[in-house]
Amino acid sequence: MSASDQIDLPKGMAGGASTRRILFNHLAILVCWVGLWEIGSRAGVIDPLFFPRPSDILVGFWRLYITQGNIWFHLGLTMAEVVAGFVAGSALGIGLAFVVGLSDTVRRFLKPYVVVIEATPRIAIGPIVIAAFGFGWTSKIVIVMLVCFFAPFVNTLNGIINVDRDQLDMFRSMRATRVQTFRKLILPEATPEIMAGLRLAMASALGGALVAEFIASNNGVGKLISTYTGNLNMASAFVCVLTLSAVGFFILRGMEWIDRWLVFWTDRKRTEAVGRKRAQRWQKGGKL
Amino acid sequence: MATDGFAVPQEKDMPPKTAQIPATDSPAVIAARRVRKTFGDGRVLALEDASFDIRPGEFITMVGPSGCGKSTLLRIVAGLIDHSGGDMTVHGSAVTGPRNDVAMMFQKPTLLAWRTAVENVLLPTELAGAVTKADREKALSLLELVGLKDFAFSFPSQLSGGMQQRVALARLLQTGADILLLDEPFGALDEFTREHLNVELMRIVAEVNATAMFVTHNIGEAIFLADRVFVMTPRPGRLARIIDVPFARPRKPELQLTPEFNALVAEARAVLGGLE
To answer: How far does Cα A74 stand from its chain's mean position?
Structure first.
């Protein structure tokens, strides 16, 4: 169900000799690729001004992370903006969706606004937000918030609205209270959709922060990239981009991991594992 | 079942049999007096005045095409929807909403995907309060009763459609209600599974001494299961006829091949005839 399933190595091969062979093939291809780039650049086929040599990028890594060590501060700042904006934006989106989803009146009232916001590219408000909140990190957080608000909002709302009518009737016939119906039916039922919304939000959060920093900023990885590019220091700009690739990869992997842990019942293997665990807990007389 | 070949005169205009006199001394467990339901500010009549008494332990089936009000009637008994007129009483008290002594099962299993079978069965207990050791044992024994002893810790996604409905049946029994309302519970399953589950359902309902109201659109199924069949006709929804089914229990599927059985099928078809 997740994008990672497609790149995952076949499960049966995990740890086996074939895994090592596949890994070796991948590495070999990568080395060839990087080697060709390096040779092409030195032979004058690739312009090193815009596409720096792998060796230069490697030196850049050493410079930015060790000798100058300046990327740490900017990366930390950008990540702080991303995390703060993501948490605030998605919390707002999910919270508002619950308010809206559980009340027909509010839903009808808010519908036109939702349609308008959906059609508006969120980043277009960027310059206005910066004008209002300044060049500092506050404006970046607000922009990330705006970027992160919508997907969790829409998904949560869909999750709530799409709860099966028969299931609601079933809870009603068992005389469940509103709180019970919410906790034991609506919330878990909506969780897969909420998580999908959060993953979408997280994927765009990093981009939102960077664009905000491109627009106007004194610090952050986005600012670093635009400065290096302006100085034609492409190797350092590439270091920043590759750093962001790695950060993005780990963030998305982390989200997938949380998703699988939380929404275990959509994954066959996880379902089997959780079933075994619950059977053990039951035998010990533990809480369900 | 569109063309049935039974050339019986239409009896649509026959007045509904009202207020059946109980055959035993025991008072009616479900009693309806001119219960009606309208929608859209009284403009649409979903169920015309229906009156009947259901005795303890009786197995009632309601059969008829879509729009005949059978599900509406069931939901009124369940307290899930209000009736617009008349009196509906269960165990002598008026139905004003969902109640402890009435439980309902739906065409969809309506299981919670994130709970194992036994956790699903325990849901009604959990909603009512704390779960005790005795409740857990009851849940396991109910799973055994429906033939899922070895699947207590399977999740719904690991079970077939028929097994999911068995879990739903165990959950229905876990409520402890003595009135079971079943809205086409096996309607989405294949013919073989359905027949098998019907036989088991009869056994289980008899074992727990429950009173059952079972909705179906299959005439054969309705007669096979029932002590009495409520034959209902649409536009407006109406309880057109109540057919007594005298066959002894336990019943075997072969019963459906007997002429007596088919005579009752013909009788029900006569009421429903010309509708399809």
So the answer is: 19
